[in-house]
Amino acid sequence: YLFVQDDKALDAGMIANGWILNLFIGNPVGQAADLETSMASTAANVPLGSNVVYIVGVTNYGPSFISTNVVVSDTLPVGSTVISAIVTQGSVVHSGSSLIWNVDTLGTNSTPVGARLTLTLQPSAAGSMLNYAIASADTFDPNPDDDAASATVTVGTIGAPQISGRLVNGTGGFQLTITTSNAPASTIIQASTNLINWVNIYTSTPPFTFTDPNATNYSSRFYRAVLGP
């Protein structure tokens, strides 16, 4: 509010020429930005020797239009090796068991999902891989409960595929059932007539059942199951 006080006797007088008011924009009192960190893996289970991929996201839900100096600190799973770290904005610094993602300034409700980090790791042993990340910023965050996120991937050794078979009554076909243990993997069914030359006849991920419709074309046919690439 603006007030004008008349200090002339008997409240007599006048205001000449008015006045000039200059306004300067500054940071409003109570400026705040709610950051949310999210994390997901592209697969819940992977075989040992395969890469593990985590998707880490950070979004500014306001009310401030920007959150400044946003940093995401990622505590890497024990025994993992960083293969790559690709971000949609900012830069990444890797040191030992931690990875620092300098997001910098993050706008409100950035599209499509704020800023994103795609982190590819190589596990060194079977077991659970827990990845944990937490975001911070210079701008006050009134809701810190959603600043952190984590995801766990199970790394397992793949058991040899187990094969069992039976004749299909009435058709002459031969039916194969394939199972395997731990993390799923592609399995190839191969056939041979002499146990020397093998040909691929079917590929799938266990458990599955396959019936060879060409079994009746051979006086004898042998089968085996091998892990796929």
What does this structure look like?
The chain is elongated and about 125 Å long. The strands form 4 sheets. It has a 6-stranded mixed beta sheet with strand order 2-10-9-4-7-6, with no helix packed on it. The chain is 0% helix and 52% strand. The chain starts with 32 loop residues before the first strand and ends with a strand. The chain has no helices and 16 strands. The model has no long low-confidence stretch (mean pLDDT 83). It is mainly β.
Quick overview:
The protein is mainly beta.
Number of helices: 0
What portion of residues belong to β-strands?
A: over 45%
The SSE string, one letter per element, is EEEEEEEEEEEEEEEE
Tell me the Rg in angstroms: 32 Å
Total beta strand runs = 16
Determine the structural class based on helices, strands and strand pairing. mainly beta
Q: Give a quick account of the main beta sheet: strands, pairing sense, barrel closure.
A: 6 strands, mixed
Please mark out the parts with pLDDT under 50 across 5 or more consecutive residues, or reply none: none
Helical amount among residues, as a percent range? under 10%
User: Globular, elongated, flat, extended or rod-shaped: what is the shape?
Assistant: elongated
Distance between the termini: 75 Å
Integer average pLDDT: 83
Reading side by side through the largest sheet, how are the strands ordered? 2-10-9-4-7-6
